[in-house]
Amino acid sequence: xxxxxxxxxxxxxxxxxxxxxxxxxxxxxxxGEYDTANALALHSLIGSSIADxxxxxxxxxxxxEFMDASTIxxxxxTNTTLRRSARALRLRSPSTMGRRxxxxxxxxxxxxxxxxxxVPSRR
Length: 123
What we know:
The chain is an alpha/beta fold and 123 residues long. The protein has three helices and five strands; from the N terminus they run βββαβαβα. The radius of gyration is 13 Å and the shape is globular. It starts with a strand and ends in a 19-residue tail after the last helix. The C terminus is likely disordered.
């Protein structure tokens, strides 16, 4: 499953469609800014994705412009939830600042090194 989620105020998830990779993983593409204002919506979206499918969960962060501690809390909770069911959380393409925040919070081990291209405009 591939889902895109725009962090705009009151904007519901868009772009829900199955892909061949959905048998082994689910991919959520996140866009915009993530903070306390939309952490609950993000947590709900991720929770629904976990409940709806199996396999690992991949969060595409390439279009995330900002994330704060509430977002990190959602990611940590998601990681714990998935690990309990022998699944994994992988994070793709965080910005330099996002990567630094993940490092500070000891979640950088979740970054998928193979799918984490260097994006010069984000560095």
